[in-house]
Amino acid sequence: MTTGKSIVRPAAEELSERLRGQVLLPGDDDFGLELEGFNQITEHSPDLMAVVAGAEDVREAVGFAAARGMPVAVQATGHGPSTAADCGLLINTRRMRGVRIDPDARTARVAAGAQWFEVIEAAAEHGLAPLNGSSPLTGVIGYTLGGGLGLMARRYGYAADRVTAVEIVTPDGESHRATADRDTDLFWAVRGGKGNFGVVTALEFGLVPVSRLYGGGLYFAGEAAAEVMHAWRDWTPAVPEDLTSSLALLRLPDVEAIPPFLRGRLTVHVRIAHLGSAEEGKKLAEPLRAAGPLVADTLADMPYTRCGEIHNDPTEPIPYSERSMMLRELDGAATDALLALAGPSADCIDLTVELRQLGGAVGRPPEVPNAVDHRDAAFALSTLSLPDDRPPLVVDGMAAWGTGRRYLNFLASPDTADLAESGYEPATFARLAEIKAKVDPRNLFRFNHNIAPRPSGF
Ligand SMILES: Cc1cc2nc3c(=O)[nH]c(=O)nc-3n(C[C@H](O)[C@H](O)[C@H](O)COP(=O)(O)OP(=O)(O)OC[C@H]3O[C@@H](n4cnc5c(N)ncnc54)[C@H](O)[C@@H]3O)c2cc1C
Fold it and tell me: For residue 302, how far is its CA from the centre of ligand 1 (angstroms)?
């Protein structure tokens, strides 16, 4: 097996001749630039990189790697690296743009490098919206393959639940179009199994008839964390599925990139996306607005194209670790425990500690079954911290209320790949591992939340 260190320029040149895109080796002018991604905690150091220009390039590049037994990593935006690709071939999809909307069928078809803002804008022209997440900058494919927990999740479910077709180059270099009727195992596995089964070159999925919402953020001074968290917890069980919300404890550094009112202090940020009328939204938000002294209030009727303002996620690359745990419930004791771990008097290093309310459509199985679990979870807890050696104290400290499962899209840093099994129920993971054994027996696609191949009957 060639693990990559012996890859020499002639082999790269051979691949280069077959691609429309670019093949780069360490030391080449653009190599460092093309390697850059959003989360800088992971430093990939592949032996070579194929900056692919289309599906045919992907097929050539994967075939090249397969023939040499080279492991393959995939990067679009770098928002979700789970392990460093320190040898082998990195397929960089960022130049594979392209979003096509079918307004009659209410579907979108997107290429591998598409980012959510492109789909949001294209769909909005037809009064439609995708099931994107909090940041319009994340990649459509990486987000969706991990489930895709979005701003309208309680109303419409996980993004993966609405995928209708996956075009993918499997680790043997073959192209497939997997649907509910074709390559059904692959179709099930890819929707939830993340990047384990090959390179997705295009995705097709349903859009929803949403062009506006009542949403934004309520920002409270950190000293009111206990009152606000308990008020939010008391409020969530009764809100309609048209409303999806989250609460974050923000401990943001005193740097210029952060808005002055958030710098160097603890702030509680409640984020709301309500699909009903503004009037109803205002009424629903009343108890929260009264929960503590507001530092800022951005709740307003807005076009869906402004949905990125709800969470106001960072847009500049930063190095961070992200951890997660699904919670069965959030009772008073759980809220107090979280306050002790991350509230105003806690010695907490996390930049953000976030709770997202689940339930509604994310709690129900999709029409076409997929590998996204967590239908029984009530909240998703996640933390984001700068590089630090300390264990994930907040997430571990909430284990008593956890389902024991993690949401893989909220697990990012070089050391989170081996937690993949905790992203699934045992039966789901076993089936994923069996499909992996058929599709990728050599585990060439291992620089991800890796599902090690396990032949059936293992
Ligand atoms: C600011 C921010 C906000 C976020 N908000 C949400 C949210 O609201 N909801 C949510 O569910 N997640 C959210 N995420 C997590 C995000 O969805 C995941 O990290 C996702 O994996 C990012 O995909 P990417 O392609 O942008 O990143 P990359 O780091 O480029 O890719 C991550 C992984 O996705 C896989 N992948 C990407 N493209 C392909 C492809 N074409 N074929 C096969 N595999 C591929 C690979 O395994 C790759 O390692 C957020 C992340 C950030 C940083």
Answer: 26
